[in-house]
Amino acid sequence: MIKEGGNHVSRKLDAAIAEGLGKDVCWKKWETRGGFDVFTDASPGEKGADAYFFHNEHLIDAVPHYFEDGNDMLGLDAEMRARGYWLDTLRYFTVVDTNGYLQGWWRVVYWKRERNGEFYHACASTELLARALAVHKALTGKEWKE
């Protein structure tokens, strides 16, 4: 199970999902040069860098924050549904913490009805992260690795 922050889940996952959806993703950052703010090329993980959609060399928008923002995930769910995937979400409670609260994890499955037995699942500490990991696996056929 992957925990948010625990395994350095980052914007790289969001960018990989966007690329799996067929989007052209570039990493950019803002720098001040000669008193002006300039949009420059960047590397993933570089301070101030973020992932952006581009089309014909023109900036369209920042890549959504799929595993951190519920509204962005709803858009991703709609995209996956349009591609023929169905979603099952399960919450497991396994431990009572020192304050008496149940702690647990999320298991998410994306599956295709018309393909016998094709399903992609992931487990994580938050529902959004579990969904993002399962989508990545469905789009790429691979487990997420930073």
Care to describe what's here?
The chain has helices at residues 11-20, 70-82, 127-140; strands spanning 24-33, 36-41, 50-55, 58-62, 85-96, 102-112, 119-124. With 146 residues, the chain is of the alpha+beta class. Helix 1 (11-20) crosses helix 3 (127-140). The radius of gyration is 17 Å and the shape is globular. The relative contact order is 0.20. Mean pLDDT is 84; it is low at 3-8.
Amino-to-carboxy terminus distance: 14 Å
CATH topological fold name of the domain at 1-7 and 66-146:
Double Stranded RNA Binding Domain
Order of helices and strands: HEEEEHEEEH
What CATH first level of the domain at 1-7 and 66-146 would be assigned? Alpha Beta
Over all CA atoms, what is the radius of gyration? 17 Å
The overall pLDDT, averaged over residues, is 84
Name the strands of the widest sheet in spatial order. 2-1-3-4
The total of helices stands at 3
Helix amount, in percent? 25-40%
Low-confidence stretches: 3-8
Structural class of the helices, strands and pairings? Answer: alpha+beta
Under the CATH scheme, the architecture of the domain at 1-7 and 66-146 is 2-Layer Sandwich
Q: Note the beta-strand portion.
A: 35-45%
Query: What quaternary form is this?
Result: single chain
Number of beta strands: 7
How would you describe the shape? globular
Keywords:
146 residues; Double Stranded RNA Binding Domain; 25% helix; 38% strand; disordered N terminus
